[in-house]
Design goal:
alpha/beta, Rossmann fold, 5 strands, transmembrane, Cell_Envelope_Assoc, Rossmann-like_a/b/a_fold
Length: 190
């Protein structure tokens, strides 16, 4: 067997094991494992709102007070644009736009740079409920040794962590477990 065939076969086996492991993990841990909500009560120095979910910025409003900076990751997406933030009542001077993030990893790296540049010591990270496990894992790894304290808020979404699963819930859960596996490998192994 040639070296290329061995590498290809090994890659396929690893991919199959990862998918099977993800599905097994999903059935063992269930949907609720994906959801983390720190129930933050204290005011943080800043609020970081991740793009990707229509209700995230609205949900963050319960912690917003004038003078609290709100970092909008990937601020080019409607749900996290300056205009939408202004519509919700966030003061223009409190909005910090970060237009470059494309995924959870870059949400973390780019928001950390902003947090450090501004001298903030704590942040509330707001994302969709099903996305909180991966967000917390990623942000905690990226912010490790930064001295910045993070807490997490799970904005309600279409995802239901209890009761019968809809087709959308199945897709979301399996997709999120696959992404969680990929992020875990990237952050902690490679």
């Amino acid at each position: 067997m040639t070296k290329l065939k061995k590498v290809l076969l090994t890659s396929i086996i690893c991919l199959v094991l990862m998918v099977l492991g993800t599905i097994l993990t999903f059935f063992l841990l269930g949907r609720s494992f994906l959801v983390i909500d720190d129930n933050p009560e204290e005011n943080a120095d800043a609020i970081i709102v991740l793009s990707g979910g229509a209700g995230r910025l609205s949900y963050a409003m319960q912690w917003y007070e004038p003078g609290t900076p709100v970092i909008l990751t990937n601020s080019t997406k409607y749900a996290t644009t300056r205009e939408h933030a202004l519509e919700l009542g966030i003061d223009s001077s409190d909005i910090i736009e970060e237009p470059e993030a494309e995924d959870t990893y870059t949400n973390a790296t780019l928001s950390r740079a902003i947090m450090q540049e501004k001298g903030f010591n704590s942040a509330l990270v707001v994302t969709s409920d099903y996305h909180t496990r991966r967000t917390k894992m990623t942000f905690n790894k990226i912010y490790d040794s930064s001295g910045i304290e993070l807490s997490y808020a799970a904005a309600p979404s279409h995802f239901s962590e209890d009761g019968p699963m809809s087709r959308s819930d199945h897709f979301t859960a399996v997709s999120e477990y696959l992404k969680l596996s990929g992020y875990w490998l990237t952050l902690f192994i490679f």
